[in-house]
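Re: that backbone. Tokens:
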């Protein structure tokens, strides 16, 4: 991956800690909006091109999983939380009929966890939540 870059000089990072919230219909047709929002947040934080693409792919994968398991007519809640030090947390939640976590023993899940620094999941009365944590530079080692 390319070296992390600093955000453009016109970007004031002193106030980026405000979260961006997005609610989309739980439909494949709207997953692109979640991916685009993730790309905008990562680019604003100065992520390099490869890292931005990793974030885009990870958000698309999680949103797609949630769409598959979401209750009919429900929505996916997306919260993008940037931090001054270049970290980005992305939380995606949906009401699911089964109330079960996405399967973590699939190839898709293996790819997902390779794209970001950390993935956590939880199930509660409201459904399934997946939190992606990433940063401007890769912090997890890559096996050769």
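Recovered sequence:
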């Amino acid at each position: 991956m390319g070296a992390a870059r600093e955000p453009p000089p016109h970007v004031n990072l002193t106030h980026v800690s405000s979260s961006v919230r997005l609610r989309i219909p739980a439909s494949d047709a709207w997953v692109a909006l979640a991916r685009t929002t993730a790309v905008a947040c990562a680019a604003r934080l100065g992520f390099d091109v490869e890292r931005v693409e990793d974030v885009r792919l990870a958000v698309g994968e999680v949103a797609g999983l949630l769409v598959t398991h979401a209750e009919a007519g429900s929505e996916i809640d997306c919260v993008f939380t940037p931090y001054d030090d270049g970290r980005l947390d992305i939380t995606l939640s949906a009401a699911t009929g089964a109330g079960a976590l996405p399967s973590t023993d699939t190839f898709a899940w293996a790819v997902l966890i390779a794209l970001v620094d950390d993935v956590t999941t939880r199930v509660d009365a409201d459904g399934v939540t997946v939190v992606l944590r990433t940063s401007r530079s890769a912090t997890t080692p890559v096996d050769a």
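The longest strand covers residues 127-135. The CA atoms of residues 7 and 46 lie 4 Å apart.
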